[in-house]
Every structure is written in structure tokens, then in C-alpha cells.
Specification:
By secondary structure, the protein is mainly alpha-helical. It is 62% helix and 0% strand. The protein contains 9 helices and no strands. It has helices at residues 15-25, 35-50, 57-66, 77-89, 95-107, 118-128, 135-148, 154-170, 178-198. The longest helix is centred in the last third of the chain and has 21 residues, at 178-198. It starts with 14 loop residues before the first helix and ends in a 5-residue tail after the last helix.
């Protein structure tokens, strides 16, 4: 059966890696960080570029494919995803391109690109664009994230989630590219603040 996402893999000479990545995104423990998330990030990259955000397409698109290749709730998932990218891409691309892909994957741990890091700004904004989703999609995202952390009790999960949301709201801007700031900043802050207000209060 044809897989539409395979057609969006930017390295057609290496379809095997794309299939391995899709198998990872289809893993049984995935809730939010599945192939739908991958597809949405790719859509947002395309949308940001169409709206005028500048970046190098190849490393940014490859970083999107690899950024959640490993996702198991552990803190070093981005590092392991970056290491996978380095090993998988080394036979196919110049070392500088491979290094840039791995750097961008690691950046998705913090979503804090340096000023002028155009590639980093685009991948970060595309990854966090879910925060600006309509209320129904945002609610589904929140529920899916909770499923990914089903091994945590409610108190532990809530404390961690509260920390994440508070850190997001403390940022001067959630987004970095001009198109994302214009379209997503206000609804994203509203969604995050509303979710935070619904969490049980600390004891």
C-alpha cells in the first residue's frame, strides 16, 4: 500500500531510512509524537517557507524527520535521535550537512535557537506550532501527551507538565520567525495559559 509520507522524504536515494523512521513513529508507545505529528511539522515548515521564512530546506526537512525518531520519555531522546541521524545520513550527504541536521535535532530539546539561526528558527517554530492549534486539536494533543507518560502517576505528570507550561510562558516569544509570531503567538499563549489554569493546584 502506498505511503504518502514516503513521498515527502527528502532523500529519495535512501528510502530504507525513511521506512525505519516511519516504523519508529508508528511505535505502540507513541501518543502525540507519531506520524501525524511528523506530517504536521512538515506541513508547517512548508507553510512558514511559503510565508517568507528563510531556511535551508534539506537539513531542516531531514531534522523534522529525525527530531522525534527516538521518543520514550527519557531526557536524552533528542541526543539519541541526533546520533541516529548522524549514522544514517553519513553515507549519503556531506559531513557539514549531516552535522547541521544533527544540530537541529538537538535544538528541538530546548526550542531556543540563537538570533539569526534561520534553520533553527524554522524547525523550532514548526515543532511548537501545535501550541497554536484550534481548541479541539489542542485538547487531543494534551490527551495524547498524557498517554505517552502513562507510566507516571497523576501528581508526577502534573508537576512536570506544569513546569513545561510555565517555562513556555516565561519565554519572551514562543516563536522566532516573523510568520509564526504573526499567526501563532497569540493563540499559542492562550492555549498554554488555559491548560495551565486547568491543572490541579499545588498542595
Amino acid at each position: 500500500m502506498p505511503d504518502a509520507l514516503l513521498d515527502r522524504w527528502p532523500l529519495p536515494e535512501d528510502p530504507g531510512t525513511a521506512r525505519e523512521l516511519l516504523a519508529a513513529y508508528d511505535g505502540p508507545t507513541r501518543g502525540y509524537h507519531d506520524r501525524r505529528h511528523l506530517s504536521e511539522v512538515l506541513d508547517r515548515i512548508e507553510g512558514l517557507r511559503d510565508a517568507g521564512a528563510d531556511c535551508e530546506p534539506l537539513p531542516v526537512l531531514l531534522a523534522a524527520w529525525f527530531h522525534d525518531a527516538v521518543y520514550d520519555g527519557e531526557r536524552d531522546a533528542e541526543e539519541r535521535s541526533a546520533t541516529w541521524a548522524e549514522a544514517a545520513l553519513a553515507p549519503w550527504l556531506p559531513a557539514a550537512v549531516v552535522a547541521e541536521v544533527a544540530r537541529l535535532v538537538r535544538l528541538t530539546e530546548t526550542h531556543r535557537p540563537a538570533p539569526g539561526d534561520r534553520n533553527g528558527e524554522v524547525i523550532s517554530d514548526a515543532d511548537l506550532g501545535i501550541l497554536a492549534a484550534d481548541p479541539g486539536r489542542y485538547a487531543a494533543y494534551v490527551a495524547a501527551v498524557r498517554r505517552e507518560y502513562a507510566h507516571l502517576d497523576d501528581a508526577t505528570f502534573t508537576a512536570g507538565r506544569r513546569h513545561v507550561l510555565e517555562q513556555l510562558l516565561a519565554k519572551p516569544s514562543l516563536f522566532h520567525t516573523a510568520p509564526a509570531i504573526a499567526a501563532w503567538e497569540r493563540p499559542a499563549r492562550a492555549n498554554v495559559a488555559a491548560e495551565l489554569s486547568r491543572l490541579p493546584q499545588r498542595d
